[in-house]
Amino acid sequence: MTIPGPSSPLALARAALPVLCAASVLLLACARDPAMGLETILAPHQSDRAPGAAVMVIRDGSVVASGFVGLADVERRIPIGPRTAFDIASVSKQFTAMLAMMLHEEGRLDYDAPVVRFLPELSRFGERMTVRHLLSHTSGLPDYYDALTRAAAPGGWVTNRDALAWLARQGDPVFPPGDRFQYSDAGYEMLALVLESAAGRPFEELLRRRIFEPLGMRDTRLRDRPDRSVPNRARGYTLQGDRPVPDAPHPLDCLMGSGAINTTLDDLYRWDRALATDRLVRRATVDEALQPMRLNDGSESDYAFGWFLEEDDGRRRLEHPGSWLGFQAFIARYPDDRFTVVLLANRSDLNVGELAGRIVDLYGVSAPGPR
C-alpha cells in the first residue's frame, strides 16, 4: 500500500502508550492526518492473493494522497500500481461528451441537430431525437444488450455498427425524446457514431489524437476491438465465495462511446487537470454542457453531458460511476473546491461509491451519495 502524505505527529507517542489506549490514539491520528485515515479505509482490502483497487485524492491541482491495494493479476501475482490500467466502463462517457464539446466549439456539431442528419439508418425514430438527447440520456432509444449478446457468434464481438443495424430494423422507442431521463448506453454508443460522422474520422482516432495524446495520457487506450493492446491492463474478477474468478471476454466488451476506455490513476490525474483548465475547450463551453437537461414538461434532469449533477450543502459536485463485469470506477469532482476523488477497482464486489463517500468525508468535503 502506498499512501504519500505527512507523517502523523502522534505516531511515536502511540507506540509508548499502553495497549488499551492504542485504538483511541489511532482514531485521533486518523482525524488529524487524512493520509492515515485513507490507509485505514483501504486496509480491509489489502491482500497478496486477491484483486483490489487504486485510489487518488486531488486537492488544489496536486495529488495529496494515493493508495494501491491488491493484485492487478492474481494468477501472475502482479500488484496494482499507479500505471495499472483499468476498464473504467461508464466513466468513459465523460470523454465522449468532451469530444462532442470540442466539435461543437469548432462549429462542426450542433447539439440540437437531429440524429438522423448523421445516422440516416435511424430515420424510423424520426427527427425529434437530437444530439442533445443522446448526451443527456433522454433519447428514448431502446436497449439492445440482451439481444446483441444472444445474437453474437461464439467467440465473436459486437461493434457499434452492429448495434446501429439492430436499431435500424427493430426495437420501439421507450418514450418520446426529451420526455424523461433514462440512463442509456445505447444513446452514447450512437453518439460515438455521430461524432465519427461529424468529424469524418474514426472514434478511436478522435479520442487518441484530440484528448489522450495532447494531455500526455500515454497509458490510456480505447479498447474498441479485442486485440487492441492495453499496457499493464488489470484483469477483472468476480468473487465466488472467497475465490476470485477472472471474468471471461464478453461480446459487448468493445462497444465504444458508453465505455471501453482503459486508463490509469496517473492518466486520470492529467484528465482532471484538463477539466479544471481551458486545455481542451473554453470554460464557457464546459459551463454550457454542465447545465441540467430541461425536459419536455419543464422539469430538469440531474444529468448533464457525461456527468451526474449533485449538490452537497451548497457545494457543487460532479460524479460518475462505472461498472462492467469485474471492473468498477468512480470519480467525484468538487470543481469549486478544487477537490477530486478517483477510485478504480478490478473486483465486482467492491462498492467504490461508498468508499469514495468515506474518503470525501475524511478530507472535510460533503460525501457523495450511493448510486
How are the elements arranged and paired?
Layout: H1 11-16, H2 22-32, H3 34-42, E1 53-59, E2 62-69, E3 71-73, E4 78-79, E5 86-87, H4 93-105, H5 131-135, H6 145-151, H7 160-169, H8 185-199, H9 203-215, E6 221-222, E7 237-240, E8 243-246, E9 261-263, H10 265-275, H11 283-289, E10 293-294, E11 300-301, E12 308-312, E13 315-324, E14 327-334, E15 339-345, H12 352-362
Antiparallel strand pairs: 1-2, 1-15, 3-4, 5-9, 6-9, 7-8, 10-11, 12-13, 13-14, 14-15
Helix pairs in contact: 2-3, 3-12, 4-8, 7-8
Would you give an account of this structure?
It is a single chain. This protein is of the alpha+beta class and 371 residues long. The chain has a single domain (11-362), classed as Beta-lactamase (3-Layer(aba) Sandwich), CATH 3.40.710.10. The chain is 32% helix and 19% strand. The chain contains twelve helices and 15 strands. It has helices at 11-16, 22-32, 34-42, 93-105, 131-135, 145-151, 160-169, 185-199, 203-215, 265-275, 283-289, 352-362; strands spanning 53-59, 62-69, 71-73, 78-79, 86-87, 221-222, 237-240, 243-246, 261-263, 293-294, 300-301, 308-312, 315-324, 327-334, 339-345. Strands 2-1-15-14-13-12 form a six-stranded antiparallel β-sheet, sandwiched between helices. Strand 12 (308-312) and strand 13 (315-324) form a beta hairpin. Helix 3 packs antiparallel against helix 12 (352-362) and helix 7 packs across helix 8. The longest helix has 15 residues, at 185-199.
